[in-house]
Amino acid sequence: MSIHVFFDNSNMWGGAQATRLLREPTVPWVALRIHYDNLFTFIEGGRDRRTAELSGSVPPECEALWPYASKHGYKTNLLQKVDDGTGRMVEQAVDEILHLKMANVLLDYPATDTLVVATGDGKLSSFGTGFRTQIERALKLGWTVELWSFSEVCNSCYDRIAHVSPSLHLKMLDTHYDCVTFVQGGEYYEKDPVGKKTYFRVPARYVKPL
After folding, report:
1. How many domains does the chain have?
2. How sure is the predictor about 60, in pLDDT bands with cuts at 50, 70 and 90?
3. Residue 86's pLDDT is what?
4. Which end of the chain is more exposed for a tag (fewer CB within 10 A), N or C?
């Protein structure tokens, strides 16, 4: 049985940060890192991987991520953030690229394979597509689906779907947080309302082995 992996980097990063606030709230967000080698290895579980897609947006550039993703054979889909007209920089079609490629896999491969989706996002996009809708399509076609996420950002719709569809397997990463993240120790700073910087040191936390 082969697997097809789709990795929503923005949502996984948000999930790691939300879990950090619960597990180690004194660590500043900027010091947290995802250990992608461990995370990819853990999600894939040594299985035959036919598809590996990862989406993200720039900026921030996340230069360290792309070599890791490439090393593990992931195709990276990177899009520039754009101004939404109010001065905010927002993502454009990052998720929709994965939605399209998920649909292609459902058309091109047999339902005996497993769809592996790393996200907790259950919303519809502005174009009417969503991870949820593609997962529901896969289940209707007879696929086995694994959803990997952190519980803090996993949309409750997936619990409801899993309740009626035993072919959807929810895989929460919370208990493996220390194995898929680490803290980059060093000197950091925070600004007060007038822009004055206060420097402080953050001790390193090394990743635990899987």
Report:
1. 1
2. low
3. 62
4. N
Q: Which two tokens stand for residue 59?
A: 């900026």
* 78 neighbors 70 (Cβ within 8 angstroms): no
Whether the predicted pLDDT of 141 surpasses 90 = yes
pLDDT at 90 over 70: no
For residue 91, what are the domain limits? 2-202
Structure tokens at 81: 């953030």
Tell me if residue 4 falls in helix, strand or coil.
strand
What's 156's DSSP letter? T
CB atoms near residue 75 (< 10 Å): 12
How many whole angstroms separate alpha carbon 141 and alpha carbon 118? 20
Question: Domain of 64: which CATH number?
Answer: 3.40.50.1010
Assess if residue 207 is contained within a domain: no
What's the whole-number average pLDDT of the chain?
A: 89
Q: Is residue 210 part of a domain?
A: no
**9 within a domain of the structure (yes/no):** yes
pLDDT over 80 at 79, yes or no? no
Flag whether 208 is in a domain. Answer: no
Q: What is the pLDDT confidence band of residue 169, given thresholds at 50, 70 and 90? A: very high
